[in-house]
Design goal:
- It is a single chain.
- With 223 residues, this protein is an alpha+beta fold.
- It starts with a strand and ends with a helix.
- Strand 5 and strand 6 form a beta hairpin.
- The chain has a four-stranded mixed beta sheet with strand order 2-1-5-6. The protein has a two-stranded antiparallel ribbon with strand order 3-4.
- It contains nine helices and six strands.
- Helix 1 packs across helix 9, helix 5 crosses helix 6 and helix 6 runs antiparallel to helix 7.
- The protein is 57% helix and 13% strand.
């Protein structure tokens, strides 16, 4: 069985990234008997000007997208897409537009412990923000998510209170931008092939199969 690594460049306050995560999981499940997949969650900040304290979420989006009616239409579309695959967007619960830098630091530390643990943290961050309306810039919230996901809360609390790995995360975001990433989600397969946007599960499953077949053919050619 060929194995493929997917680096998912995303932001945990991006609704299309949450949708994309669920769609990717369905695609991986579809090809699990044919292709082995490892997923790494990589950082991006859609709103680098957001602060740790946060500002009003809805007011910011109304200004960003040009009015309440347009925002409501966009969110209704996302709700509809989400319902199809078990994502329950509750935009009305979100009160705070906050920085995601510390959430990305948490994901960075989780990846050190393993991809599965990092994936649990990513899911908890998305769900916490988009369904429960949690302020994911709040260190108390991040510590709770870390503990529930299997990380040591005391260690994570101490790391969050410091500047540990802030530069690392920011450098990784800068590297993604230099590669041409200007929107998320952005999926990079085996460091070579890119897919932009929250593609449907069948599209992603087809991409996984195609890449696995190319790798298998290349391996045959080396023998």
């Amino acid at each position: 069985m060929e194995r493929i690594t997917i680096d998912v460049v995303s932001d945990v306050v991006c609704p299309w990234c949450y949708l994309g995560k669920a769609r990717l999981e369905l695609a991986i499940a579809e090809v699990q008997d044919e292709v082995g997949v490892t997923v790494n969650w990589r950082p991006y900040r859609l709103d680098p000007d957001a602060t740790s304290d946060g500002t009003d979420y809805r007011s910011h989006l109304i200004a960003k997208f040009g009015g309440a009616e347009r925002l409501d239409q966009m969110q209704d579309t996302l709700r509809e897409h989400g319902r199809e695959i078990g994502v329950n967007f509750q935009f009305e619960n979100i009160k705070v537009r906050a920085s995601t830098l510390d959430a990305h630091r948490l994901l960075h530390w989780a990846r050190i412990e393993g991809n599965e643990l990092q994936d649990r943290v990513a899911t908890a961050l998305f769900k916490g923000h988009f369904e429960d309306g949690l302020n994911i810039a709040d260190h108390g919230v991040l510590v709770q998510i870390a503990e529930a996901s299997g990380l040591d809360p005391a260690v994570i609390g101490a790391l969050l209170a410091s500047d540990a790995d802030k530069d690392t995360v920011l450098e990784e975001i800068e590297s993604a931008q230099k590669m041409g990433v200007n929107g998320v989600p952005f999926l990079i397969f085996d460091g070579q092939y890119a897919v932009s946007g929250a593609q449907k599960p069948d599209v992603l499953a087809s991409a996984l199969r195609d890449i696995a077949n190319m790798k298998a053919e290349a391996r045959k050619g080396m023998i």
